[in-house]
């Protein structure tokens, strides 16, 4: 270690900039260490001190010198210059050379670099110092060779690779996905990612071994893009460090989000299985981590005898009897689901009931009976035929309805064949099935399985919706190999990452068990603390309400400590049915919501359904661009009765003052005034007071831009950051290839949020956020800073967000948030937020 002073002379000529002004968070947030930036006027880089050249980037744009006192001085010419692959750069030294202060290190062609790189701004930092103080000797223009700054601190020593061999360790590998390989920026991100954990991390490549704490040793590995490296972690948190390292190396865009969520979503990250072997990859339908013995339901087999001995009429009578008995069972399930307040589940079973009467299915089965098949074979064949037709359609949602057909197929067959249900797995099992029907899943839930793995299925299928609502980790589309796995063997389901680990060793099982226990304890701690209000350190109360879709979710949110309902998405009430819910049905559902939250406000959004969500009875014409079509409040133009019924139901709940109506997709004030007038008219018709508060969703950019006008007539705003981001960035929120780029912390979205808050403030109205950004704890200080006073989040996040609010000081959030609007992109915003308000 050294604590001696280091004098650095100017390595380049040009105006000086603080590192915080460099438009690259890796430098501006200090990940590369303290230092200075220069906007070069000449294409020559000189040594700022005497020392040894210990590293030169493959593409010659960066050089590191080690001073005799151990300080490692890193110089990087331009931004994103790694992409130039050496073009325009000419080296005057080699690795291992000793150089004196002021010696020429590198020449670069200013024009070539300026045209091809993002910027010419060049940085000089000290990468291995701790507690460093820095004194500038000049503040304006750097002149080559003139004293520039004095540094004083301690150099960080690289760890001895063998000193911790007896500690817990974890090993894995990762493919470096960063464009240009493991150059300065990814190396800094890797170092940052593993730093919080109590573990040492080494990267191994081509017989070289680098300590992840040392940027220079990482750079010296010379790892190229798409090359695989080995990772070794030692220490108490070796598993977490390994997961963070893999994440940092393999997911360049996900960097900040991964770091932010590491503490609370360890499900996918505590996993170090080697890629390929011992892992079946599927699609996450409901996130979470689970482990348990694999269990498969008994398969239903048809009798070998296909042809009837007793004739078509007798077979028809048997089939009718079985259909009737199935109808009775399904009706019981509907009643039961309604009693439990599970409207979504009840709606699914209602659709099943309708299938039993479906004329096409009945006609088909009759035809097969006439051809001489038994009732069981005829019913099976008729349903198979429909499944084949749906499977051939180019519509994912319709294809997923196959599982409903199969469900009804199996239910009737069980009665025909007199086969008892075998959905009785041991508690805590991982259930594997080809595909599961919603009713089978409902049966299954009673047995309290740990998780669900399906060979088929899709993430938007009913089973997935139900699994998510029940908080059951579930992965779909795992493929045929799932059904060949041995039963009763303990496996790990990392549903968040969409994978099933089929060969976990005992160390892995122990790690998962510990992880699950930690998660459960943490959830419980947060849940208890969440029963109290969320108040910032300087006394501002932030309402943390819940986003819900049905009554059971509302009850769960209440138990989790929600301060009310911030968004009831009423869509689920209208889907998977043969007709819209009646006014009376809606009224009792909304009333039940109010009763689930005594004394708290309940915000109910009017129907936000679009051309992409099939609601058969509405006969919506398919639209070429559903996101920009007849959705949200616009549906009220074409289906006024739907909106009227919903408003009437809302006007009649008691006490109506606790019920607030929220209007989706408003884009100008005329739409709001129209709905307000309609509420007055309907109230007069019903002879009730028009006492409903009316809020506007700010999710279309025009609404944010016209916020001041809207605020004059609205009671409150709720910002829908999901759509606001989609429309501002012109990026489809469901597009998997854009998922890494569509980020609501984009400065353009923040500007619109700030504008909405300013507009509301002018009329004394409050603003909440109900989009997913409200559930992102990195964003909490920003939203508070911009003027938000309510956050509506998923039930599972209430404790976490309340805890986050309590760490913050609202005045400081306000003061620091304004500057975020000037940052160039979402990544920079996230980096700045992490530096200002780290998620603990
Ligand atoms: C939003 O757009 O942010 C929002 C809350 O609405 P939804 O996600 O239901 O479109
Ligand atoms: Mg929306």
Automatic annotation (TrEMBL):
Its EC number is 2.7.3.9. Its main location: cytoplasm. PROSITE patterns: PEP_ENZYMES_2, PTS_EIIA_TYPE_1, PTS_EIIA_TYPE_1_HIS, PTS_HPR_DOM, PTS_HPR_HIS. InterPro entries: Dup_hybrid_motif, HPr-like, HPr-like_sf, PEP-util_enz_mobile_dom, PEP-utilizing_PTS_enzyme, PEP_util_C, PEP_util_CS, Phosphohistidine_dom_sf. Residues 159-178 are annotated as: Disordered. Keywords: Cytoplasm, Kinase, Magnesium, Metal-binding, Phosphotransferase system, Sugar transport, Transferase, Transport. Residues 169-256 form the HPr domain. The keyword Transmembrane does not apply. It is an enzyme of class 2 (transferase). Residues 24-128 form the PTS EIIA type-1 domain. It holds the Pfam family PEP-utilizers. The keyword Disulfide bond does not apply. CDD domains: PTS-HPr_like. Transmembrane segments: none annotated. Its cofactor is Mg(2+). It catalyses: L-histidyl-[protein] + phosphoenolpyruvate = N(pros)-phospho-L-histidyl-[protein] + pyruvate. Belongs to the PEP-utilizing enzyme family. This is phosphoenolpyruvate--protein phosphotransferase. It comes from Pseudomonas asuensis.
């Amino acid at each position: 270690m050294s604590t001696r002073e280091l004098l650095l002379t100017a390595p380049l000529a040009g105006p000086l900039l603080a590192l915080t002004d460099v438009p690259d968070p890796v430098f501006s947030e200090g990940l590369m260490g303290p230092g200075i930036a220069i906007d070069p006027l000449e294409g020559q880089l000189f040594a700022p001190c005497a020392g040894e050249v210990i590293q030169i980037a493959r593409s010659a744009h960066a050089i590191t010198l080690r001073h005799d006192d151990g300080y490692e001085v890193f110089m990087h010419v331009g931004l994103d210059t790694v992409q130039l692959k050496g073009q325009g750069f000419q080296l005057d030294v080699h690795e291992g050379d000793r150089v004196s202060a002021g010696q020429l290190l590198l020449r670069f062609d200013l024009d070539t670099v300026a045209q091809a790189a993002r910027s010419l701004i060049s940085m000089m930092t000290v990468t291995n110092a701790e507690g460093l103080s820095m004194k500038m000797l000049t503040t304006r223009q750097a002149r080559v060779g003139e004293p520039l700054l004095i540094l004083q601190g301690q150099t960080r020593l690289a760890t001895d690779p063998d000193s911790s061999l007896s500690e817990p360790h974890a090993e894995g590998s990762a493919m470096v996905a960063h464009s240009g390989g493991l150059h300065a920026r990814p190396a800094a991100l890797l170092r940052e990612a593993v730093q919080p954990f109590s573990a040492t991390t080494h990267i191994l490549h081509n017989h070289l071994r680098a300590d992840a704490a040392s940027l220079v040793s990482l750079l010296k590995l010379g790892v190229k893009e798409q090359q695989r490296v080995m990772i070794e972690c030692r220490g108490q948190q070796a598993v977490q460090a390994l997961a963070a390292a893999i994440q940092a190396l393999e997911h360049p865009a996900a960097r900040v989000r991964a770091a932010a969520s590491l503490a609370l979503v360890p499900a996918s990250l505590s996993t170090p299985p080697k890629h390929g072997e011992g892992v079946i990859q599927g699609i996450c339908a409901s996130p979470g981590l689970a482990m348990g013995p694999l269990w498969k339901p008994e398969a239903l087999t048809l009798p070998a005898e296909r042809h009837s001995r007793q004739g078509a009429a007798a077979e028809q009578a048997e089939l009718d009897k079985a259909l009737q008995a199935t109808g009775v069972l399904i009706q019981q399930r509907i009643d039961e689901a309604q009693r439990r307040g599970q409207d979504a589940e009840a709606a699914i079973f209602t659709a099943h009931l309708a299938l039993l009467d479906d004329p096409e299915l009945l006609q088909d089965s009759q035809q097969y009976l006439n051809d001489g098949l038994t009732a069981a074979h005829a019913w099976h064949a008729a349903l198979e035929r429909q499944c084949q037709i749906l499977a051939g359609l180019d519509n994912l949602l319709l294809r997923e309805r196959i599982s409903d057909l199969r469900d009804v197929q199996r239910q009737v067959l069980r009665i025909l064949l007199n086969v008892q249900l075998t959905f009785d797995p041991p508690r805590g099992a991982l259930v594997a099935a080809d595909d599961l029907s919603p009713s089978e899943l409902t049966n299954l839930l009673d047995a309290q399985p740990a998780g669900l793995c399906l060979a088929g299925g899709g993430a938007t299928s009913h089973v997935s919706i139900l699994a998510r609502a029940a908080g059951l980790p579930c992965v779909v589309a795992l493929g045929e190999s799932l059904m060949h796995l041995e039963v009763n063997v303990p496996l790990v389901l990392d549903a968040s990452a969409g994978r099933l680990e089929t060969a976990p060793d005992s160390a892995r099982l122990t790690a998962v068990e510990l992880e699950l226990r930690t998660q459960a304890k943490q959830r419980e701690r947060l849940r208890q603390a969440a029963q109290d209000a969320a108040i910032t350190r300087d006394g501002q109360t932030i309402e943390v309400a819940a986003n819900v879709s049905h009554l059971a979710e509302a009850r769960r949110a209440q138990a989790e400590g929600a301060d009310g309902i911030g968004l009831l998405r009423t869509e689920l009430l209208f889907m998977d049915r043969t007709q819209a819910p009646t006014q009376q049905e809606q009224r009792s559902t909304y009333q039940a919501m109010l009763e689930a939250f005594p004394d708290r406000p309940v915000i109910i959004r009017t129907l936000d359904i679009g051309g992409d969500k099939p609601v058969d009875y509405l006969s919506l014409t398919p639209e070429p661009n559903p996101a920009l079509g007849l959705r949200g409040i616009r549906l009220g133009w074409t289906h006024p009765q739907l909106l009227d019924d919903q408003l009437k139901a809302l006007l009649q709940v008691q006490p109506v003052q606790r019920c607030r109506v929220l209007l989706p997709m408003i884009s100008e004030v005329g739409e709001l005034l129209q709905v307000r007038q309609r509420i007055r008219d309907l109230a007069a018709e019903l002879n009730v007071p028009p006492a409903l508060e009316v809020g506007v969703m700010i999710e279309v950019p025009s609404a944010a831009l016209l916020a001041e006008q809207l605020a004059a007539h609205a009671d409150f705003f709720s910002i829908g950051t999901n759509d606001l981001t989609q429309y501002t960035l012109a990026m489809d929120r469901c597009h998997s290839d854009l998922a890494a780029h569509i980020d609501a912390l984009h400065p353009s979205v923040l500007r619109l949020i700030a504008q909405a808050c300013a507009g509301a403030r002018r009329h004394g109205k409050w603003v909440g956020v109900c989009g997913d950004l409200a559930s992102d704890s990195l964003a909490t200080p920003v939203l508070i800073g911009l003027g938000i006073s309510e956050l509506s989040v998923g039930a599972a996040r209430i404790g976490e967000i309340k805890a986050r609010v309590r760490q913050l000081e609202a005045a400081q959030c306000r003061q620091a948030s304004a500057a975020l609007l000037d940052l160039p992109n979402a990544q920079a915003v996230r980096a700045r937020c992490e530096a200002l308000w780290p998620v603990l």
